[in-house]
Amino acid sequence: MNIILNGEKITVRGSASVTDILEERNIDPKTVIVELDGIILKQEEFKDSVLCEDSTVEVLRFVGGG
Amino acid sequence: MKVNDKFMIKGMEIKSRLFLGTGKFGDDSLIPKCIEACGAHIVTVAIRRVDFGASTDNITQHLPEDCILMPNTHGARNAEEAVRIARLGRAAGCGDWVKIEVVSDNKYLLPDNDETLKAVEILVKEGFIVMPYMTPDLYAARRMRDAGAASVMPLGAPIGTNKGFKTREMVEIMCNEMDIPVVVDAGIGKPSEAAECMEAGAAAVLVNTAIATASDPVLMAKAFGEAVRAGRNAYLAGPGAVKSLAEGSTPLTGFLR
Q1: Measured between CA atoms, how close is A29 to chain B, in angstroms?
Q2: CA geometry: angle at A51 spanning A47 and A57, to 5°?
Q3: Catalytic residues of B
Q4: Would B229 be classed as within a structural domain?
């Protein structure tokens, strides 16, 4: 199925969770913020948050800024 | 001598009147060294999409635990985007502090006071400690305060220019008239300019580019910390009067003739 991940359209397997998306990219879930379809997720919700066709996922983190 | 000079924001004592921005450092491992050198207590960070192709770290791993992390809303072009970024920062465990930054002008990066005010109104109601970056304007500052802003953060000069305290007249009026802290943010390029802000009555100064892009950022951080303390002490001390005619410091009596 297709989803939008950080603004890019990508294909993932059906029933993939947010945790799956992060693990495939070697991202430590403790270091990121995830917004799924406009809803901010808590870290404990990553595992059970299953993506759907056309889901929009934003994976964010803190960077240097003034 | 005035010894009781606690700097309080929303009931919390802030241990330093120098806020440090964490952008533009060539090596993020310099950041904790700069924090130690200047004594900053409030440190700003930003939120960005993860670049899956890069191995960048989360900046917070470089920051001491006793710092107050204040995410900015950089990248927001309107109030709605600023509110979204603020909520993301809090969801990430950053606490309730947020620096509102709404900019739609890409040439001078001047803040949009109207959109900023809208964001302040929303975020204060959600329990954030809101510090709006703004173009110096007393009326706008009063509206920010009335909306519940914890401080106002007028720019000294456009972001990242290192031009210095170009807005002194307007900011000094704000310092004199506002009953919440006025924190000069952006454009301060040298420690002497930070001291000037403090002498003008600013409660604090936020510095990033001038420290991060110095040849020796840690030494520059130390210099800024000292300058901010010196400027604050000068403000508290009350400078002597400026006069147009010369007046010798040495007594004008008892000359040897």
Answers
A1: 11
A2: 90
A3: 99
A4: yes
Which of residues 129 through 188 in chain B touch A, CB cutoff 8 A? Answer: 159-160, 185-186
Q: Is A31 near chain B, with CB under 8 Å?
A: yes
Range of the domain at B219: 14-237
> Between A and B, how many CB-CB pairs are < 8 A?
92
Domain count, chain A: 1
The pair of structure tokens assigned to A27 is: 């991202």
pLDDT in tens, B105-136: 889 999 999 999 999 999 999 999 999 999 99
- Whether residue B136 lies inside any domain: the answer is yes
DSSP per residue, B40-90 = --EEEEEEEE--TTS-PPPGGGGS-TTSEEEEB-TTB-SHHHHHHHHHHHH
B59 reaches A (C-beta below 8 A): yes
A66 lies in a domain? no
Kindly report, residue by residue over A20-50, the tens digit of the pLDDT.
Answer: 999 999 898 888 999 999 999 988 999 999 9
A7, two tokens? 């603004």
Domains in chain B: how many in total? Answer: 1
Which three-class secondary structure state does DSSP give residue B227? helix
Whether B42 is covered by a domain: the verdict is yes
CATH of residue B126's domain is 3.20.20.70
Complex ipTM value: 0.91
